[in-house]
């Protein structure tokens, strides 16, 4: 059943029997046999087949989403059993939101591998809401999100602080003023992250704290693009200090001095609400909390 599910998932994602067979290093008839066997065992057709495409039908969509969960849980079970027999090794799937994942996590992984060289981490970078969703579907072992969240099916624990300030290009006209007013800030174009991002949540809180919502807002899909856009003179933004260390040191960006800033937020760990955790996940969580 496990192999049939894996073959089915591959066919569903490739939407083509030939490509699936190549990826699985199988013959196309062998792939077809696995699909037919799965459909017979479930007593329902899962795919719509034509000469041009292979698509999931309604039953196939249901099986696809649950099959992903089943195989992820099976992998987790194997890892837990391996922990009883071996030293810390194997896969460690980490999901992190953009700020922590891009600017802090690489250094943490380097430290982790010096102590546990047999580990094989894989890292997925998504926004906060997407990391929660990945954990809910058992696709990651540990998640790291920006800000705090609640979910009764998950354990969410704040573990580190972050500071955020209003940022502008070092040659921005704001810095020629003796005192920067709220009106000055209100008239600027603000560069913000997409909805669902932890940084966007803090940017919304920033506007609430400043008691205005800017008339001119540009939404951009990553912090790196926002930084480049600020340097290009497209506007100003609220960003984490972690993301702008190099730009501040090189004099490309500057902090705008405003009362009540920097703002403080937390990074939070997201783990399954279960007493069972792989050794790999345990040592990684311990590193984050205690380093």
SSE blueprint and pairings:
Blueprint: H1 2-14, H2 17-24, H3 28-42, E1 47-49, E2 54-56, H4 58-85, E3 90-96, H5 98-103, H6 105-115, E4 119-125, H7 128-136, E5 142-146, E6 154-169, H8 182-186, E7 190-192, H9 198-210, E8 217-219, H10 223-231, E9 237-240, H11 245-249, E10 253-255, E11 263-272, H12 279-290
Parallel strand pairs: 3-4, 3-5, 7-8
Antiparallel strand pairs: 1-2, 5-11, 6-9, 6-10, 6-11
Overview of this structure, please?
- With 291 residues, the protein is of the alpha/beta class.
- Helix content is 46%, strand content 22%.
- The protein has twelve helices and eleven strands.
- The protein has helices at residues 2-14, 17-24, 28-42, 58-85, 98-103, 105-115, 128-136, 182-186, 198-210, 223-231, 245-249, 279-290, and strands spanning 47-49, 54-56, 90-96, 119-125, 142-146, 154-169, 190-192, 217-219, 237-240, 253-255, 263-272.
- The strands form three sheets. Strands 3, 4, 5, 6, 9, 10 and 11 form a seven-stranded mixed β-sheet that branches.
- A hairpin with a 4-residue loop joins strand 1 and strand 2.
- The longest helix has 28 residues, at 58-85.
- The protein is elongated, with a radius of gyration of 24 Å.
- The two termini are 43 Å apart.
- The mean pLDDT is 89.
